[in-house]
Amino acid sequence: ADIGSQKDRVVTKEEWLRRWETGNIGFHRKQGHPLLQKYLDVLLNGRSGLRVFFPLCGKAVEMKWLADMGHNVVGVEVSEQALKEFFSEHGLPYCEEPVPEISGAKKFQSTSGNISLYCCSVYDLSSSILGKFDGIWDRGALVAVNPCDRQCYVSLMITLMEKNSSYLLVTVSYDANKYKGENF
């Protein structure tokens, strides 16, 4: 797709961390996304106990919602602050441990065991670390990924999908030459 003037734009890890530190997180939704509710049947496809991946998860409230339904949720986010806020805001106890395969990475896991959130770059992950998923909920990851990284991101998502996975993607379409927003 032609993304016009944004094709060479790059948002750094430091910029994302600064946004979390300053509370400049207009992309975070305090309520679950209505499209996930609307298309939940597509994601679940009549199945229970699914493994669902949340790329660039932030502190998405849908993670707890799906975990409360009996699904296992795995997310990844570069901001440790966002992950700690997720557990704190939901009153969920968790433990923290290093990820041996990734230098400096941490895994935050609910004591119930059904929510595991990785603090690292999504590109540091692989199916050998995470396993594969029955579903992926991409509410804002693809539009946040730098255009130069998109192919790598898509390739990674494909390797994380089980044979009969469902991938729900929320995206936006606009003229990037007229709008200089935070999304790509």
Automatic annotation (TrEMBL):
Recorded GO CC terms: cytoplasm
Catalysed reactions listed for this entry: S-adenosyl-L-methionine + a thiopurine = S-adenosyl-L-homocysteine + a thiopurine S-methylether
One GO MF term attached to the UniProt entry: thiopurine S-methyltransferase activity
Keywords: Cytoplasm, Methyltransferase, S-adenosyl-L-methionine, Transferase
Gene3D superfamilies: Vaccinia Virus protein VP39 (3.40.50.150)
One Pfam match: TPMT
PROSITE patterns registered for this protein in UniProt: SAM_MT_TPMT (PS51585)
Example of a GO biological process term: methylation
Family named by the database record: Belongs to the class I-like SAM-binding methyltransferase superfamily. TPMT family.
PANTHER family: THIOPURINE S-METHYLTRANSFERASE
Name listed for the protein in its UniProt record: thiopurine S-methyltransferase
Species in which this protein is naturally found: Syrrhaptes paradoxus (Pallas's sandgrouse)
Lineage per the UniProt record: Eukaryota, Metazoa, Chordata, Craniata, Vertebrata
Gene name for this UniProt entry: Tpmt
